[in-house]
Amino acid sequence: MRAVDIIQKKRDGHALSKEEIENFISSYTKGTIPDYQAAALLMAIYFQGMYESEVSELTKAMVHSGETVDLSMIQGVKVDKHSTGGVGDKLTLTVLPIVASLGIPVPKMSGRGLGHTGGTIDKLEAIPGYQTELATEQFIDLVNKNYMAVIGQSGNLTPADKKLYALRDVTATVHSIPLIASSVMSKKIAAGADRIVLDVKCGAGAFMENREEAMTLAKTMVNIGHALGRKTVALITNMDEPLGYYIGNGLEIKEAVDVLTGKGPEDLYELTKTLATYMVMLGKEMSQKEAETLVTDALLSGQARNKLKENVKSQGGDVRYIENTELFLQAKEQTTITAPTDGYIRHIDPKMIGQGAMMVGAGREKLGDTIDHEAGVQLHKKRGDWVEKGDKIATIYHQKQLKKDVLTLVSQAFHWSNHPVSKKPYIYQVITAPTE
């Protein structure tokens, strides 16, 4: 089976067989197919697309290109959550403790941040002492004991995806629904969960900026999940402005704890409840109404917050930071930005806010950059709010002297209107079953 024949077949718009996909992925992972031929296939897929059956086979081939995590020693139905990434997205930190507190195991493997979106592992490491590198046996033991543990991603999961992702980045083939969907789902399936809830971000701060593309991606991933024996639900959620009011690692932990004590912002609170509800529906196989009641009770009773404290303690973290979240507000300098005019906030550009936070140390421009867990941006107003000239609209937390371009970037992220501006929905659509 020659690589050139597989490339030509896809170039001409034909469906690849299971054997052709398996052969290509296996050979590329082993290094017997060179990058230039893999790049040619990626470009053919970019232009010709793939049928659902092809995407499922591609995902399966990437899953089996390396190790898979065996979670069979964890009792019960394991439920995982994945977000396609956004600014201020701290939903893993709010949702997992709720679900775990209801007796549903949530073994979570998360990544680090790169660019203007933060990683869950970086955020948790803002808690002094929190250990994200655990042996597999310890990870499984913690989930069996506490129903929750969070660790960094294993080095040899889906090596084919790692190679292809790096190649996509330098060949302008990143923005391809089949390639994005197979990349996300291969990692989720290799990580061993029985059920998967996907948070597909849509808007100016998301990878998918328009709803039509977000819908196509969500449907494709749900179809893959079901085809590979994983019941999957996808929520298409709004990322036209940062989620919540805090952007930055320690700052986002603070806001996550606020949500678990009933004090968090409306957008973050509502998304937390909804995502947790769908995870509970899958984990306990119950109706949405029943699941929502359990989730609400877990939040209002303090049960979810106690579960987070239990997790932090069990992974070596300083629980005092959960009991007193003001400990996260320790940056040496705080620079306030005020409104230049009266008016309604029409739009807050999430990418500009995320880039501003990254530039003061809350994110990485390249792999290997050091994270400042105390740095970031706090918003004081959101879309639709009325603001008078001179009102505080944002605070930048930083250690070193603030560069003028950071101040300009965050200031220019705010756009104004003389007329009232309506809020956008937090959730656009939920996809619960395979679609044609």
Automatic annotation (TrEMBL):
Names of the cofactor(s): K(+)
E.C. number(s) listed in UniProt: 2.4.2.2
Domain of life: Bacteria
Entry GO MF terms: pyrimidine-nucleoside phosphorylase activity
Catalysed transformations (reactions): uridine + phosphate = alpha-D-ribose 1-phosphate + uracil; thymidine + phosphate = 2-deoxy-alpha-D-ribose 1-phosphate + thymine; 2'-deoxyuridine + phosphate = 2-deoxy-alpha-D-ribose 1-phosphate + uracil
EC class name: transferase
Domain Pyrimidine nucleoside phosphorylase C-terminal: 344-417
Keywords recorded for this protein, A-Z: Glycosyltransferase, Transferase
Pfam family, any one: Glycos_trans_3N
Function: Catalyzes phosphorolysis of the pyrimidine nucleosides uridine, thymidine and 2'-deoxyuridine with the formation of the corresponding pyrimidine base and ribose-1-phosphate.
Subunit structure: Homodimer.
Family of this protein: Belongs to the thymidine/pyrimidine-nucleoside phosphorylase family.
Name of the protein this chain belongs to: Pyrimidine-nucleoside phosphorylase
